[in-house]
Predict the structure.
Amino acid sequence: MDLLYTVSRKPNCNPSKSGPDYDVLHDGRTLCCISSQSIVAFSAITELEDCWGKSWGSHVYIADLNVPWHCHKVISNKAIVTALEWDVPGDKLLIADVDGNVQLWTFKDHLLNEWVCLGTVSFPGEHILSALFFHNGKKTNLVPDMKDAMQYTEKFKSLPLTPSVRGFGGSPIDGCVVVTATGMIGAIICLQEGQGVPLLLHTSESLSSTRSRITAADICFGKNGNFMVALSSGRVSLPVHCVRVTVKLVDEKCVLNTQALPSFFPHSGPINDIQYRHVSQLKFAARDDADCLIIATNGDSGCVIELWELREKPVPIHKTFQPKNHNNQSEPYKTMVWQHQCHYVAQCPVVCVTTSKLSLVSAVPPVGYITVALSDGSIHCLFRDTLKQAAQTSQNVIARNDDTPSTKQQKLHIRISHADMSCIGLVLAAVDAQGHLYVYRLSPFSEPSGPVSVSCASTLLEYCMMTGFDWWDVLVSLRPEIIDAVCERFSENFNRQSASIQQFYYIKQLNIKTSLYRLSMNGQSKAADLTSLLMLHSVATAFKSLLRPSDLSNHEKGPAESLANVMTESITDVDKVLLHLEAKEFTVEPSTLQSLQQLIQWVADLALNLLARLPEQRQVSNKGSGYELLRDYKALNTLRELLVIIRIWGLLRQSCLPVFVRSAENLDVLALLFKLLSRLIQNTEPDENLIDDCCLLPSQVMIPPLNSPQKLIAITSPLFFCQSLPIQLEWGTEPDSLLYVPEINPVEGAMQSEQIIDCTRHTYLGKHPSVVKQCTRCAGVAFQQFLTRTAAIRAWDMRWARECLCGGHWRLHYFSSI
C-alpha cells in the first residue's frame, strides 16, 4: 500500500503557525468518490483558493486522477454535502446534502470543467445519509478457474442481470435512490425527453412501519433488479435492519415497494464487550454483493470491524409442519439469517470504511479488500473474507519546508475524513478534513503480497477493455521493466480472439497499447505509430462509409470490397488500378470532398513520412520488439486503398487533393507514393532500389511534420517512475518535475513547425489559439468549434466528441495557461 501523491492547498493558504490556527477555518466533514472513468469527485468546506475561510460552506470539485492539480468546481452548496455518487458509466454525478436536496449533474459537451445540472429534487427536512444510482443491468466477471484461458468468452462471463428500473422493451432507465436519517427511502427516475432537460419523477416511502432516527445506512444492488438497504440507529442495543426496495415506473409514475428482511444485533458473536457502544459505519462488502455486510463499532478506546454474512440455516420445527418434497418425504425447514463470521479490532475509533465497488471475480466467497481509516490518520487494508490485515499506512507525516531547519519541522496530524476505492480496486483515494487529496496504490486481489505481475496486469487490462472501465489504476501499478512484456502478452491474447471480437474491441485495444508504450522512455515512437494506426483506421472507415454501390441489389460486394480485391493484384501504377473499378461507385458530392481535405492531406503526409523513414528504420533495428507501422502490411495496404480513393476524388474535385511542395512541377507525388508502397508490400524485406528511391524522397518532396512532440505533464508518463514517492502536488499548479517532452526523431529534411496541430482534424491552430480542448492523458489539443459543418465532417467530429483519440477525457483549456 503505497502513497502515490498528495494534492494540497497552495502555501499561501497555510499562513505561519505563529499566528492563529488557520487550519480550523478549512476543517470539516469532506467526501470523495471515484468514477469508473478515474474521475474523483470530492468536497471541501472552503474553496481551494480561499486562504482565510471566507467561503465557508460545502464545495464540490472534480479532478482527473492523471492530472489531479487541474480541479474544477461543480457547485458551491450552502448546506453540507452528505453524499457523492457516480453512476455506473461515470457520466452523472449525484450531490445530496443535509437539507434533503438531491442534484444530478453531468458533463457539458463531455468537458471535465464544464458542468450542467440535469435537475434537483428536494425532500424537505430530510438529512440524506446514503445514495446509489440505478444499475444498468450490465455486469462482467472474471472466471477464476479460467483466468489463463485464451478466449475472452471463456475467461469473462457476462451475467444476466435485471436493470434496477426497466422501461419500454426492458431497456434500463436512469435514476437513483436515497436513504435519509428519518428512515425514509426516496427514488428519482430520470426520463430523457429529446435533447432538452430530462424529466425527473420522484417519490418516497418509509422503510418501516414507524419512522425512527437513523445514523448509519448503506445501499447495494440486490437480485432481480431490487435494492438492499441496511440501517442502524447507532446503538448496539438496537438491531441492524435490512430492507428490500423495488422501484418501478408505472403509468409515468415512480412507484416504491419495501419489504422487511431478517435483522440482527451487532456483537452477538464472540465479541461481547460493552465498551463498543456506537455503530459508526455500515457497508456492504461490494455494491453487487447483498449477502455480506461490514459493521464498524466505535468505543471509548478503539473500534471493532465485524463481518456478517447472510446464510441459509435449518430451523428445527415439529415434523407436522415440515415441508414435503416430491417423494412425500420430510425436508428440514430453512430460513435466511445473518451470521457473524470474523472481526478486526483497532486501537482508535473508525472514521470511514471503504469496500469494493464491484466483485470482479465470480468466486464464493468473493475476494477483495476492505479499507478502514482511523482517527489517528492511519489506513488499514483488510482481506474481505477474513478481515486479516493485508497492509497498513499512516498519514502522520513530517511537514516539508525548505526554509525551516529539519530540527524545527513540525509533525502534523492528518485527519482522514473519507475514502473511496476505484472500480478495479488498485487505487484508493482519501480526503482529509482540510480538503487535501491522497491517492494510494493497492496490490491486486490475486497477488496481495507483492507488485502486479505480467499475467495479472494483462488480465485486468482485458477486463477494462471488455467493460469500458478506465485502466489508469492499472498503469500506475506497473513496474517499468514489465511494460513491454505486458503489452506483448496483451497483444498476443487479443490476436487469438475471433474476428468479430477483434473488430468490436479494436479501437479500445489500440488505446490501451498506446498508453502502455507511452509509459516507457523507449516506447514513444511505438506509441506514435499506434496513434497513426488508429487514425488511419478511423479515416479509412470514414472514407469508405461515403461510398455507395451502384447495384443496390448486391449488398455483399460494395465499392470497398471491390477495391480490396483489386489491391490483391500486383499493380504498382495507381492509374491502372482505376481501370478495374467502377468510377460512379466512388462518386461523392464536391462540397463533402472539400470538407475532408485536411484528412486527405494527412493520409498523404503519413505515406510520405513512412517512406522517408524506411532507410533510417532499416538501419536502426531489424525486426525490433514492439509495434512498427512500417512492418504492418495490412495497415500499409489500407493506406494504398486510401491513395486510390483520393486519386478518384481528385478527378471529381481537384481542390480536395493534398498539397505538396515539390522540386519539380511535373512530379506526380500520389502516383509515386502508391508505387513505393506497393513495392514495399510485395517484398518481405525492402530491396536496395526501394531504399534508394526512399532516400531521394526528401529531396523531391518537402516532408511535413506528422507527430510533433507534445509536452506532457501527467502522472502516467515515463517521469513517474523517476519520482520519489509520494509526489507532493498543489491544487492549480502544474508540477515541473513531471514535465516530459517525448523524443521522436523527425525525418531527415522534414519541415518543422511551431504551430499547434489539431490532433483530430489535423489542421493548424496557430501558435496561440484562444481556447482549445486538451486531453488529460496524452495532452493532445483540439479546437472547440469549427465552421465547416457538412454531414461527413460533422460525423467525424462526433467520433471524437466524447473522448480523445487516445481514449482520454477532454477539458476546456485556455492556451495562455498552457
